[in-house]
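Incident log, structure service

09:12 report received: a user says their structure output differs between two submissions of the same chain.
09:20 pulled the input from the user's history:
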Amino acid sequence: MSQGKVDYWDALAQAAQADSVVSFRRAIHLILDAIEFDSLYFLAPVVADRRVGRVLWNVGFPELSEQHYREYGWKYDPLPDIALNRSSAFRWSDAPRLARLTRQQKEFLSRIGEGVGVPCTGPFARAGFVGVGNPHEGVVIDDALVRKVQVAAQLCFQRYCELVSVRDEEPPDLSQRELDVIRWIGEGKSNAVIAEILGITKNSVDSYVKRIFAKLGVSDRTAAAVKAVALGLIATGEHSKKAAHRPRWRN
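09:34 re-ran on a clean worker, output below:
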């Protein structure tokens, strides 16, 4: 192992022991360094019904790419749906062999390059998808590396679900305005953009966000969005503007 290279198992241990979303994100960066990739995204829940919103969590992909994905890219991403029908990880380049793709889906894959897709399961039968992309120069994604990525992705998905677990928790009493704000947070909008959409000041949105964090018991926007979806407070994606509530995940 070269000097400065992160040890794979040490990185996994840090992820498993993370006690907050912030420390968990730091551990994700260590894991990416250890497996020699630059980027990761995960989606949850992943079910066959695309009307059910999927929360996106991004580490390493450019902010503009994330914005494009939230706005329309998710419609053409075939990887999560391929993962639904698989029990093991797969190379993104294998997608055309694993499923019949539309022209838009092929174009999507051509833009994101090579990576590894991993179907994941979490507590209470939650299904998710982890995509690990942008391998370092010279990295060969062989079967051994695919299996290594799968172990890391499954551990990380499991731990993240535990960090934002809402089992047996009653949804907090959010005002209508707070519900409006958390829905737009789930869509990836900044406080300034939310203020413009709702026709209120940014300071007002800042205050609503602080109250939402306190009521949900979280400290960042990603955790707030994931927990709000799990509690049935919001949906993201295609039906986010139509549905205010979703059934809670149950054991």
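09:41 both user submissions now match this output. Likely a transient worker issue. Closing.
09:42 reviewer note: Confidence is low (pLDDT under 50) at residues 236-251. The chain has eleven helices and five strands.
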